[in-house]
Amino acid sequence: MHFEVTILGSNGAIPAHNRYPTSQFVNYNGQGFLLDCGEGTQLQMSKYNIKRGKLDHIFITHIHGDHFFGLMGILTSFNLNYREHPLHIYGYPGIEEIVRTYFKHAQTILRYELVFHSVIADEPRLVFENKDLTVESIILHHRIPTTGFLFREKIGPRKILGLKLEQYQIPIHEIVRIKMGGDFTMPDGTVILNSELTGDPSPPRSYAFCTDTSYTESIIEQIRGVNVLYHEATFLDEHKARAAETGHSTTREAATIALKAEVGKLIVGHFSARYEDLSPLLYECKEIFPDTELAIEGHLFSI
Amino acid sequence: MHFEVTILGSNGAIPAHNRYPTSQFVNYNGQGFLLDCGEGTQLQMSKYNIKRGKLDHIFITHIHGDHFFGLMGILTSFNLNYREHPLHIYGYPGIEEIVRTYFKHAQTILRYELVFHSVIADEPRLVFENKDLTVESIILHHRIPTTGFLFREKIGPRKILGLKLEQYQIPIHEIVRIKMGGDFTMPDGTVILNSELTGDPSPPRSYAFCTDTSYTESIIEQIRGVNVLYHEATFLDEHKARAAETGHSTTREAATIALKAEVGKLIVGHFSARYEDLSPLLYECKEIFPDTELAIEGHLFSI
């Protein structure tokens, strides 16, 4: 099962140095999810060969333009491309008013249904669920209500052991039932227990997306042990006063959260336009949390 | 006096083939004007080294997203960059409601004044004037109210003849007065007429920006003889039924307008995403109007 994140935009509020505002595309085995969609997201999707048709769910962390000014372009292009199946948007209610105001003036009636799901910034909630995944909101601390999103894979089916298939000559039509935990009865009536036939499923994977936020330890328990954490690191440590003033994090703060939450890997992004060279930011993170990588446009991370 | 147009985006409604939605930057001797600002305009301005600080006037032809989804990103970046001087926006009143709705939800109070100037699509009107230029609206025919914009240089001062400066030993402090039409009185009382001292000023230059529109001869008288006409040419001639249906023009229609209006040069753009190779569009235009060029991102045209 593919579980991949492609970085479409890595920059903070003011685009600079050919870096785009925040957006990431999550591909879970062909199901597409957008995490934020700053200006230019649809252009970046084309550039990195991400098919728009795969996208059914867009999560918006907060109503600052660098996290959603690309939304209306995507909605419009879907319409011009004759999309017919619904599109789901998860975010604060203001998003819906902004989108509806535009379509009213453009005199556009969409060919497809736009379904808004309100996110509330009081406590972590389940905002999405299907057979494979859950998505929870993460309460962040920024200048306006802001939530991150935590993708968790559900526990998959048990793994059938190839050797046992052969040993007991198990017919193909029995396999799904055994993967779901069933025993197997031989033609002579002997029952082979599931525990002999299967191994534990792969451990469920998880990805936490935390932007924009100041340093806040209140998120640590919720994200503990995730495979990959994206945490904004807008500023170098020397600019920590500016980070606090604007509701953002420094490199060391992001890395400290990763360390305390015992995550597998840290990706940092939302870089301030003041930094053309990003290597000092990476260096500062690695001093605290060695397995850190920079969010760079076009990079694909496997979870 | 520089009078230049830089193409920031050349594509029609759906961005494709690394072409951006419509936007052009007009530089008149250091004064900056934007004509439309599709998604990604601020990114394109950075790419082509256009200083945002020079920009004081933004003209929006109509409320379709591919002509203004980049507006809010520009307004936001100005704010983050501590802009203090006013910014003027010329367009339909819906633009103001869309912009204000966003800033309300983003809880943003702008540091600078945003001045909206309503454009009305009934007849051509003067929408802007300063000491150097006028800008008139051009009534176009599209699916929703749409206006083009016609930039006309004012007639400049007369040109003083270098030989005469020397012959009559005219002091520097007299020059401005003579350029404005005054005569020169020699120390002995002899009056030298202005007509002897000066030549005619350069003929005023003009640039017409016409997008989006179906073929309409009603614009011809207004744009007759402009130095450069930008006219949309969304489709090849073989797709003229689709052009008519969507309120757009074909190559041959754009070139026919240029021919009938006796313009100096034609630039075509707003290309449909269906065309990756643009050379057939150029070929069809040139068959009717040889001095045609394609709008290509980053190209600078001197008027």
Write the layout of secondary structure elements.
The structure is a homodimer of 303-residue chains.
Chain A: E1 3-9, E2 23-28, E3 31-37, H1 41-47, E4 55-59, H2 71-80, E5 87-91, H3 94-105, E6 114-118, E7 126-129, E8 133-139, E9 147-153, E10 159-160, H4 162-167, H5 175-179, E11 184-185, E12 191-192, H6 194-197, E13 198-199, E14 206-210, H7 220-223, E15 228-232, H8 240-246, H9 251-260, E16 265-269, H10 279-288, E17 292-294, E18 300-302
Parallel strand pairs in A: 3-4, 4-5, 5-6, 14-15, 15-16, 16-17
Antiparallel strand pairs in A: 1-2, 1-18, 2-3, 7-8, 8-9, 9-14, 10-13, 11-12
Helix pairs in contact in A: 9-10
Verbal overview:
The structure is a homodimer of 303-residue chains. Chain A has a 7-stranded mixed beta sheet. The first copy, chain A, is built from 10 helices and 18 strands. The model of chain A has no long low-confidence stretch (mean pLDDT 95). In chain A, helix 9 (251-260) packs parallel to helix 10. The first copy, chain A, has 2 domains: 3-156 and 202-300, Metallo-beta-lactamase, Chain A; 159-199, no CATH class. Helices cover 25% and strands 27% of the residues of chain A. In chain A, strand 4, helix 2 (71-80) and strand 5 form a beta-alpha-beta unit. The termini of chain A are close together. Chain A is of the alpha/beta class. Chain A has helices at 41-47, 71-80, 94-105, 162-167, 175-179, 194-197, 220-223, 240-246, 251-260, 279-288, and strands spanning 3-9, 23-28, 31-37, 55-59, 87-91, 114-118, 126-129, 133-139, 147-153, 159-160, 184-185, 191-192, 198-199, 206-210, 228-232, 265-269, 292-294, 300-302. At the A-B interface, helix 1, helix 2 and helix 3 of A face helix 1, helix 2 and helix 3 of B. Chains A, B: Keywords: Endonuclease, Hydrolase, Metal-binding, Nuclease, tRNA processing, Zinc. Chains A, B: Pfam families: Anti-Pycsar_Apyc1. Chains A, B: Its cofactor is Zn(2+). Chains A, B: Homodimer. Chains A, B: InterPro entries: RibonucZ/Hydroxyglut_hydro, RNase_Z/BN.
